Model the fold of this input.
Amino acid sequence: MTHDSFSASEGVIAAFEQKNNVKLSFIKGGDAGATLNRAILSKDSPLADVIYGVDNTFLSRAETGDVLESYVSPNLADIPDELKLSKGNLLTPVDYGDVCINYDKAYFADKKLALPASLLDLTKPEYKGLLVIENPATSSPGLAFMLATINEFGVDTYIDYWKSLKSNDLLVVNDWESAYYTHFSGSSGKGPRPMVVSYGTSPAVEVVYADPKPADAPTASLVGTNMCFRQVEFAGILKGTTKRALAGKFIDFMLSTEFQNDIPLQMFVFPANKKAVLPEEFIKFNQVPEKPATIDPQDIANNREAWIEAWEQAVIR
Done:
């Protein structure tokens, strides 16, 4: 069972099937939260053997949902310790990516406007009406960006920050597609706003899918301290599987360089395996934050709904 954004090359999947004399089938479960909810609701009669796509914003809910079996892959030796967030090895890190603010490079160059160097800078008058973000109650990148502001300003003052953003003519929309393709000026949407909450890999996407391919990406990411929020995606073995050994082998396979090398241009996230080879577009066009924002997954689980409710009260009601 995977979230809707899962993708892998046919040849990579076929290699696992042939090696293990097995046929893989994939159930798309919606976004990360919906996929996890589906696994929890069906735990008495599991729909799948392995789940992929739970991220660190839902990690604790997955760990306490009584749906996972602990598994320690031998390939974890190639995974950086900072990605190993799961207690008791209930979930295995597969990939990661950063939610950042992407900006339209041409707009800032034409206006001779300096780039915001911090989240606080976004409240300055020179950036009034320039930013579009997604609602954290309805959007994964929207939630990630809200968490970055909580990490930066603290639970007691992040709402004050959002009130300042609202006063600076912030635009809030429900989903990433609308934000990026309708309201952002740096994409094919050619909207009016030159900054959007999106992904740190969006600049590479702009090049990979362009025809003809430009020499440079039209967008880039703001990657100052705590300006991006790092999302880590995990895979785990679902309790009740009748194919425990095979499930473990598939987790191992997802951490192998064969699968990991395929991840960037399939799902536009970074492979967790340190030995994986990045495509040229990832090296040339993406900006990776040195100090992304992070919040303890248990804190997110305990407070997510209250944080979103407070945000809604302050920003859109």
